[in-house]
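B., you asked whether I could sanity-check this one before it goes into the benchmark set. Here's the sequence:
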Amino acid sequence: MKNQLNEFPSVSIIVASLNNESTIEECLRSILEQDYPKHLLEILVIDGGSTDLTAKLVENYSVKSVSNRLNVPAAYNWASKEVKSEVLGFIDADAKVEKDWLRRLMEDLDNPKVAAAGGNIATWNKNQLIPRCIGYELSNRYSRLPREVTRLATMNMLLKKKVLKEIGGFDENLPTQYDTDLGYRITSADYKIVFDPDVLCYHFHRSTLRKYFWQQYKYGQNTWKLYWKHPSLAKGDPITDWGMNVQPMLFVAAVVSLIVSAIPFFTLMGLILFLSLAAIMLGYYAFSAGRIALRYDDASALFLVIIYFDRTIAWTLGALSSMLHSFLVKVGIRKG
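And here's what the prediction gave me:
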């Protein structure tokens, strides 16, 4: 994407941060070291109220920074109106990009019909078991992506500001899953999103099952809202396929079956159904983990079976808690 003077356009890279003291410096260094004209590069860090040293560390770099307690999509909408560049870049505060990341993705925006472009995701902290396994699974899913996709994570993405304005910005009612919603609306407006597998971003994945659980719990809180808004997305896509989407329902069915088995007359039927569903889920997880272990020649990837269970429980509980909250809010409003 070049202007009439055969130069790349200005770019405003937006970094949303919250308690990222262990990664924010490398993140910013990787952006500042881009092989892109420095006078065309603007960096804006939006801190969501960090209680660690994140905000203090940002002060050591030549970037703009503000403190703003909005959720991420709201912060992105605010920032898109504050910056002047025609192209917006999004990089997570727990991610870092290679030196040619910006220049190569900018080339993908040269087509007027291409609204956004993003790169592949590698694992930053792959020396640890859980992040390495998470990375294997994510890489396996991204390997299925075609050149043109229906959505990409805002972890590392460029987006034309005029298109963002045209489609109405990010949905601020989706604190997570807003990037999937964004992709749906971009492609529905007859624009294209381009995925470049050779342009790398390194993400610092959650290092413990507990941290991963709470990340996925938040995803679960908003996934059902996303599918309620766009029912066609429930069938899945190459990143999150139908097999992943159906897992929370299988988990709920298994739990209900186990509860039913406690009723004398239904004990045998409930137990058989529970064991059948448990076997299906375990078999699916084992097959998926085994295939990934073979693909990456690393037996440690078999730990994905545990990670899958952790994720499914998190998605389920997140969705149920959010549904209950929404129901109580609506009931309260009607009573009022």
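One thing to flag: The longest strand covers residues 192-203. Otherwise nothing jumped out at me.
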